[in-house]
């Protein structure tokens, strides 16, 4: 069951990168669906007694995996992520607020391609095991906001993100 009360999570948390999954869905070449993944590098979270929640999730864009090596290599180039110049994506959580259906709105910013813009995600927090929690969050972004503008052959600019981040009490 999802928990919208943050009292049980007061403290400092460290991301378990190996147990974390980051997925995206988009359209490519004449609206064919594409699914892909990224690997998390690191992350932290802090929840305080007064209800303040902050954190970070650092993602390796060079780890992109779509099941097609040629496409993955192209995504790493300066047409898209330019991983040589911008080796990480970072989501910075600045707060949370209650949403509908027992969910939470995660307020934060997303930094990619040298640019930072607001990005709200909707999520849940579940106790995964003693001393561990899973934060599941979803949201949509338009990659052109981060100057990721390549759209040849019908490539979509709208992406749906699904993050399942596992944190352990520090």
Estimate the strand proportion: over 45%
CATH topology: Lipocalin
Poorly predicted sequence stretches spanning 5 or more consecutive residues: none
From the helix content, strand content and strand pairing, which structural class follows?
mainly beta
The chain-level mean pLDDT equals 88
- Run of helices and strands: EEEEHEEEEEE
- Class, according to the CATH hierarchy? Mainly Beta
Query: What is the name of the CATH architecture?
Result: Beta Barrel
What overall geometry do the principal axes of the alpha carbons give?
elongated
Please report the distance between the alpha carbons of the first and last residues.
23 Å
Number of strands: 10
How many alpha or pi helices? 1
List keywords for this structure.
single chain, 170 residues, mainly beta, Lipocalin, 10-stranded antiparallel sheet
Give the topology, please.
Elements: E1 11-15, E2 21-28, E3 32-47, E4 53-65, H1 69-76, E5 89-98, E6 104-112, E7 115-118, E8 121-129, E9 132-142, E10 158-169
Antiparallel strand pairs: 1-3, 1-10, 2-3, 2-10, 3-4, 4-5, 5-6, 6-7, 6-8, 8-9, 9-10
Task: Describe the structure in brief.
Helix content is 5%, strand content 57%. The protein has 170 residues and is mostly beta strands.
Could you describe the 3D structure shown?
- The structure is a single chain.
- The chain is mostly beta strands.
- Helix content is 5%, strand content 57%.
- It has a single domain (7-169), classed as Lipocalin (Beta Barrel), CATH 2.40.128.
- The chain has one helix at 69-76, and strands spanning 11-15, 21-28, 32-47, 53-65, 89-98, 104-112, 115-118, 121-129, 132-142, 158-169.
- Strands 1, 2, 3, 4, 5, 6, 7, 8, 9 and 10 form a ten-stranded antiparallel beta sheet that branches.
- A hairpin with a 2-residue loop joins strand 6 (104-112) and strand 7.
- It is elongated.
- The model has no long low-confidence stretch (mean pLDDT 88).
